[in-house]
Structure formats: structure tokens, C-alpha cells
Design a protein that fits this description.
The complex is a heterodimer of chains A (about 425) and B (about 130). Chain A has about 425 residues and is α+β, with helices and mostly antiparallel strands. Chain A has 14 helices and 16 strands. Classes of the chains: A alpha+beta (about 425), B mainly alpha (about 130).
Amino acid sequence: MNIKFRVLPIMALAMVLLFAPPTRAEQAAVEAAGADANAPTINLDKTSLDNGGDFVISGKAPAGSKVYIELWSAEKTVKANRFDGKKDPKTGIIPYKFYITKDMPAFYKIVAPVEMAGAIDKAKAAGKSWKYSEVLKEIGADAAYTVPAKIQIDNYQATIMASILGSRGTLLPPMDEKASKRESMKLVKTRFVSVGNLLSAKVETAPDGSYSAKVSIRSGLAPGKYSARVTAVTERIKEGDKETVKKVTSEVASFENKIAFPTVYLSTAGTSINILWPFLLASAVTIFGVLMGAGGGFILNPLLIMFFPLPHTVVAGTVMPTVLFAQGTGIMNYSKIKFINWKLGCSIGCAMLVGGFIGPKLTEMITLDQFKFLFGWVLLILAALMFWQTTPGYLANNKKEQAILKEFKKRAAEAAKAKG
Amino acid sequence: MKVDFWGQEFEANMFVGCIGGFLIAIMSSMFGFGGGPFMVPLMTLGLRLPMYIVVGSSLLAIFFNTAMGTMRHYQFGNFDLILFLVMFPAAILGGYIGPKIAKKLSPVMVKRVACAGLIILGTKLLGLF
């Protein structure tokens, strides 16, 4: 198809054929090029890593081409979701769309030529507002972006009412390839957050086209098979709005990332962590929680998010059941000495049941940054409450109440004894 | 609503209780914690109930929220079994050691430390430093 492009008389027709379904046309170009004699070669100096590490990818691409390496975990996939509640600046309509995929590779990165380092640093300096699709385009890595473009994304039309009721909304028909690719980039950014996680500029190319890149895979990533593919962009032709990218791609090379106990892969979170640390953290926090007279979940959650690369949804969804059992035993102990007013507890409990139905939906709708922001305020309010509980007035009152509480507990224990 | 407790009768404004409980439940299930530190002030201050009724009954109310929240999080695929298996024994261990240390420490001191810790954590999450 690349050759057809050069034959100018039928270019207009070819343009229509090529661009009507743009991604498919591009795909065809890739496959045709794969068998090409020009196709770059790819060699890895290591085929096995031990919980991350450095390795060198080298090979030969057509002289003068720009070489991009796409790296992804071929075995492990994770969930990624995004809620689009931002007002469209053109139409002024808030889309209220919810996008979710289960096929996001647990690791994804594109390594660009070294000369793109400036553009990547610029994106890093832009902070949280960087746009993945724009950076990809700027450094030309959009030509190498293929794997997430093919993931299956479900999109839901959410409404405020549906969200209140705790539903994702109505499932819409699948997006076309172009829209799906565009959305996949946004999901990639939501999932991997930072520029450094997704892009680096490491590929050095010699004038004869041989290239090499020292790639480092950080520790704490998904184990299993990883794949690497080289895309060499030989030429970019700009004609008006349309840009034609001529590229050749290598075969897929693979390597293995191995992890060993006590480092364990958390499949929902998509990261591997040394389980000793969360264990110690959770123990310390629950001890402190008991001293404070609370569960401790509100300290454990932010710490887990800060120290480990875990998604906030997984942290919230996993800490909650942990607290559940402690509460269950607490209720059992109190009910033994008849220290629970069932009517009061169940009445408020019913209202809380409804709230508990809605809350987890909201966790899914917000981003990690929003989660941190809101949680920050919750903690400050809590700090104020804690402070209030150390003020002299409260303490004096509390002392009286504690005395009554003790008296009641004693009576309750005696009553239980007399019965038993 | 009338609340009967060990022969004493209290009047509780259930409207305040239910609205407050509902809001606290949304917040706590959204962020994945129990909600006890918010429920206790709500029931003592908002409903004007004495501490000895609140301790047990607030736990019961929270249990409803945690059970529902757990189910919903599980339904949305937010539950990671391995992480749970790591933290669950830690929580039991903490629950076992905690009360033993508690006897030796002044609760006011603990609350002051907690207060300072929460301010640090909160401002850190807000990205203030």
C-alpha cells in the first residue's frame, strides 16, 4: 500500500480507500511491512529479568529511520476505567460517559529516540495536565502505538440518577476503531498516570540504521511474558491535514519477568509488591487504631496509596472487608453483654446501607488525584474531631461518661454471669 | 424515636441520625474505611445520646455500611484477594496487641498524636508539601 501511495494519479482514490477506516488502513500497512526485507531486526541481550532490571534491545532498522520500541506485558492485563464528566468546550454538553476495559496490559511503555528527550521532559514539567495523545504525536510515537489501540472498551452512558442509584448506566454500542483508539490513550493515561511510566527516550541510532536502547524495567511490575516490537518510521509525508506515516515493524520479541516470594503479584492492582511491607503497615496501623478507639482504615488507606503503586479503587475495596470482621467480632462481644441497642443501630444502619450502596460507585468514577484531594479534606476534618476530643471540656464530660460506662459494663457482665 | 437502654429511655431524632448516617456511609464506603470516628460524634452530639449507648450501637450501624460497601466493591472488581489475605492477619494481630498496649498509654496523648498524624497525612494528600 505504501507503493500504491507513490503512484500519484490514483492518489485521490487511494486516499479515500486508505483513510475511510483509518486504523484498519494503518494496520494493513504494518502487516504488509512486517514481511518486508526492510523490516527492522530485534535482539534482546536478556530473556529473563528478576523483578525488573536493565537490558539492551538492539538491531538494525532502515538507515535514517526513527526507531520506536513498544513494550508491553503480554500475559497480564488489568482493569482501567475513566469517567468523562468534563464539559465539552465546543458543545457545552457534559458527556457523562463511563469507559471501562479489562484488557489493559499491566505494563505499557514506548521507548522513543534519544532526541525526543526534550519533548518528554516538557510533558513531565506540565505536571498532571499532560495529554498522552499529544505527546505521542509530538514525539512521533503514535506510529508505534498499537497494542492498547486494540483493547476492547465498553462505554456506558451514565446519568446523574443512574450514578446515585449506583449503576454504571446503559451500555452503548461499541465505538468505532478510531474512537476506540482515542479513548484507549486516555485510559492508558488514567491507568499509568505519569509521563515517566509511559514514555522514555533511550533509542540511539547510528547513521547506518543500527540501533540500541538500554531499557530498564522497574521492580514491582507484573510477572510473566513481556513483548517488545520495534517500529521504524522511515518517512512522514504531510499533505494538508492528512499525514502519511511510512513505517516498518519488526517481529515481536519476548522476555520474561520473574518474581519470587515474598514478592507477590496482585492481579487486580496489576503490580507486584513485597507483601511484608503491607503486612507490617497494616499491623502497625490497626494497633494504633485500637489505641485511638477506631478501625484505622482512614490511616491505612492513604498510606497504602502513598507507599505502593496501588489503584485507589483496589485499596478502598480491599481494606473495607478487612475491617468488616473486626466489626463483626466487636458486635458479638457487645451483644453478649447486651450493650447494643438493636433498634437504634438497625435504624441508622438502614440509612447507612443505602449510603454504602452508592459510595463504591463514586470511587470508580473519580481519578486518583481527586481521591487524594477529597481524602485529604476528610482527614483534616477528622483531625479537627480528634483535637476536639482532647479539649478540657470534652475530657471532663468524657470522664463522667466513662465512669457510667464502666458501671454499666460491670452490671451487664454480672447479669450475663447470673444467667449463664 | 424512643430508645430504651437498660431501663432508661432516651429520645433520639432519627431524621438527623439517618441523614447523617447516610452521608457518612457514602463517604466512608467511597474511601474504604469504617466510619466509626464520624459516627460516634454524630450520635453523641447530633442525637444527644450518652456514650454508653453509642459505642455498641454505632458499631452495629457501621457494620451495615461496611457489609454493603464490601459487596459493592467486590461487584465492581475492586477486591484483591492476595492483598486481603496479607492485611487480614495483620488486622487480627493488631486487634490482639492493641488492647494490651492501650492500658499503658494515656488516651489523650494517643489522640494528640493521631491529630498531628492526620494533619500531616491530610496536607500531604492535598499536595501542600
